[in-house]
Amino acid sequence: MKRLVHSVAVCLSMSCMLAATPVPAAEAPFEPGLMRLAEIFGSLHFLRNLCGEDGSEWRNSMEKLLESENPDPERRARFIASFNRGYRSFGETYKSCTPSATAAINRYMKEGEALTRDIASRYGN
To answer: What sections of the chain are H helices per DSSP?
Structure first.
């Protein structure tokens, strides 16, 4: 009997601990695409400025994405980390505009357009 009471007490305390553990929210199906888009914005921000575009069009695009998503602080940090990863990855590779950098710009422009269309058509209102 004493053993049964102890077992029940252990089970109850374990269930209370499990109930208090927050369950992570399920990631939306479009989340990886949005994070990739943020990374593309970072890459284009670096590359386009490297190749003569003087401005912040791609940083502004990132700001618009953040405004439209209105993410919580943790998700916002992931967006910013993706943007910075894209920016830094090319910053470590290119010091001047080369044909390879121009080709990367074209690839990322096409990928960004395709991602935007896909996300809007599949998940847009």
So the answer is: 2-20, 31-50, 57-69, 73-91, 99-123
Angle subtended at Cα 91 by Cα 88 and Cα 94, rounded to the nearest 5 degrees: 150
**34 contacts 66 by C-beta, under 8 angstroms:** no
Residues 97, 23: Cα–Cα separation, whole Å: 47
pTM recorded for the entire structure: 0.77
Closest CA to 90 of 77, 100, 78: 100
- What are the residues whose beta carbons fall under 8 Å from the beta carbon of 65, sequence distance 6 or more? 34, 37, 38, 41, 79
* Of residues 50, 44, 32, 55, the one with CA closest to residue 86: 44
Question: Mutual orientation of helices 31-50 and 73-91 as an angle, nearest 10°?
Answer: 40
Query: Residue 28's pLDDT is what?
Result: 81
CA atoms of 36 and 109, how far apart (whole Å): 12
Which of these, 89, 76, 75, 78, lies nearest to 42 by C-alpha position?
A: 89
Residues of the chain with pLDDT under 50: 1-24
